[in-house]
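$ fold --in a.seq
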Amino acid sequence: MSETTVRDERGAAFSTLVTSQDTATGLRDDPHQAILESAKKVGSLLKREGHSFALAGSVAVHAHGGSVRLQHDVDFCVLREDAEAVAATLTEAGLTVVEPPEDWLWKSRCMGQDVDLLFELGHEPVTAEMLGRTTQLPLDSVQMPVLAATDLLWSLLASFSEHHCDFGAVLPIARALREKVDWTRVRENASDRPMPDAFLYLLEKLQVIPVRKAS
């Protein structure tokens, strides 16, 4: 077992243990499976210690049945007030947790993969109510709380702005989750936001969702 020193963007030094098993499994040649294994490991740790959390991001889409090819990081939603306890659990398991300059997440590494601990989603705080709406779903062989499809889809739409508006990336996710999403609630949330509202109009024109009824 070798020790690797990791520094966050503030220059603080941290140490993490990287086992030879992580590199020997060949997961580095398969980013999709490596991300799944990382999500399963972290989710299992948080479950074991009884933390409130939700799997989010692309891995949550995968858990909901979306056929996405995982290529980036693992996202977990946690309450800001639980951050210290969650970080302690991961640290005791040999993982590293760092505080980047951004104040809406902490970051970790597991099996060579980035793991984000999110306190905000779609520019809104993660709440106990949000975590209470999670769905228990299997990620391969590990059951864990996964962000509800409506919250997951809305978090993607809420991130749209004039500077970031990638409809193409979210369209296949909307198609995959459409039977699980409360579109009435999504439309209510989007009513005063031009970019999400434009995306919903696109979904209507593509017949992904029904045309909204005139009020």
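$ fold --in b.seq
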Amino acid sequence: MMSHPTTRTVESLRPYQSKTWNGLSVYYIENQNGGGLDYADDYLDLFKDLESGRRFGRMFEWCSGPAFIGYSMLASNICETLCLADCYRPAIDAAQYTASTNNISDRVTLYEGDGLLALPESEKFDLVVGNPPHFVERNMLEYANVESRIYLDDKWLLHRQFFAGIRKHLERDGLIVLFENSRGSHIETFRPMIEAAGLKISGWQWSCRFGHLFWYLFVVRNDSKLQLRMPARGSHSELRLG
């Protein structure tokens, strides 16, 4: 675990694939894609409506992997600077390679470590996004050939630790927007851990591109004055498993 930005020089020892958003190429290898390659465009669609073109100061991508979501949002001017953290070293290497290759290292900070423990106390964010593991169960047949770190959050420990620790890194009117799977969770799955951490649920929204399979969870500090304008995209009155 590192409590300071990683500065290791990245050598491209394997052929990276890449995807480009607005001239910014994001590099990765296939086993680092936990869905963010597709979900990034969904996030961009969401933010076109969500904040009416607002630009956030500093954004953090939790469980970033190679940072498809974070880099695509940086390339789309949704944030000014980007902070990334992940416990998987090869993914951090890929994210660092992206920053150096695109000459944006001055706008990107990377930390290697377990959850929020990698972050120094000084890090504060206006926006937090993330595509964390979506399931608490290990026996997911469709993920039989996928590394468990991609999809498994055993006993929701990662989520619990995230909500317990993120408040001190969130500006008073900062916003958390997490991408979740409706087959694995719903609002009441996370409400107790959110409220116990001095946070509150501001709302939720179905995915823009994937319908009712995925949903967004919006969380703010319990002392926040932020008034979130939700996109008019279906009913928000109920979200249940199945």
